Amino acid sequence: MRFSWLSMIVLPFGCAGNGDSDVAEAPTYWADVRPIFDESCARCHVDGGQAPVSFDDPAAVVAMATTIQAKIDAGLMPPPAPDPTCADYVDSDRYVLDDGEKDVIRRWIAAGTPLGDEADRPAPPELLTIAPFDVVVTGAAPYTPQFTGTNPNDYRCWAVEVGNEDEIFLTGLEAIVEHPSFVHHVVLFDDGASLLGGDDGWSGGADPNDADGFPCGGFGQGDWAFLHGWGPGANPIMFPDGYGVKLQAHAKLIVQAHYFNNGDVVPDNVGYGLTFAPQVDTEVYNLPVYPPNFDHVPAGDPDYTAGETFGLSDFLPVPLTISVLSVWPHMHVLGKGFDYYITHADGSKTCMVQMDGWDFHNQVPAQYLTPIVVPPDSALTLECHYDNSPSNPNQFADPPRDVPFGEGTEDEMCFAFTYAFAGTP
Ligand code: HEC
Prior knowledge:
3 domains
């Protein structure tokens, strides 16, 4: 079986300016600093992007130089991401600045932010995409989020038919999100799910002919099965060659958007771009791993951990080795760290995701370059760390209150959405 991420790896960053120790003269914006921003900032700091300021105009960047320095020094920008020394995952370099890159920015600011010559700007790296898509599923009409009373959350779903005559396999999923600034999540469900034996009708109030969709609180309804989740900062998932998630013939999918009232909402359209294969060698499953006893984050606690250790038998009916392709860590705004690891029978540990910080705006999935094997006699530990004190800059309650487990933006969650398959690669 061939295992290849080739189509996924887009790393033509070159070495221009990226921590080059032999930049003898003062670094310039175009030759040295802009390539770092193109690699690590531009996916959010563009016109219409999720960050409030665009880095497209160099004069604006220069005017912001001391703020940029402060955010980098504080480890706040780029926002925290899974630690690349924990596990090798696609594009990991892109989500952190190394010391060389920080030094280039520092010396550029110290030198008075010289622009240099735009002709010296290397070609920016491409953003990850699985395009061209085989199918795009989306609500047919733009939808204006509606908020009732003081509830800042609106959950909207659209029922969509894929149009497949036969069973097929999803090989890639890319959420299409027009306005990431007020979209808290997008989730793709399988209705009439292949996992549960299927049914002929739509469930949960779904009507594929309704372009306006329907209200749909909850973590899925009826027999919906979770296929994929997106949060701000997440990038597309593409499985290696030969792997895919099964969809039944005449698949019925539900696209769910969770809108959060940031005071700035406009008509919006969300959807998914999908790629398919008629057959795969290995079927992939999405395991939504979470600590079932997590009830709430206590008011005022600056260091609360919701966590659980699972034996594989908690998930699986029979002893089985599984291998993990990727993990999407998900918490809300009070998160401050995330740990997900395997403890083997001999006591040794394998890190899957480790984060010393957390920013709701940067929910990057770790897509492993090599699948991580979990033998049947090992245990999985998931720990989400929270700061519910007044000193958390993302604190929304004054004074802080108990924050329950729940799907609202001002509730908390702790999930490791784990794409895995049975056996070893
Ligand atoms: C995943 C998205 C994302 C990435 C990547 C990102 N930012 Fe940000 N940035 C944001 C968001 C969202 C905000 C606004 C909220 C905040 O300040 O935390 C922000 C705010 C900022 C601010 C404060 C702007 C102001 O006016 O207060 C600076 C400076 C900044 N980012 C610099 C950077 C730099 C430099 C990089 C790359 C090295 C970077 N950011 C990468 C999303 C991102």
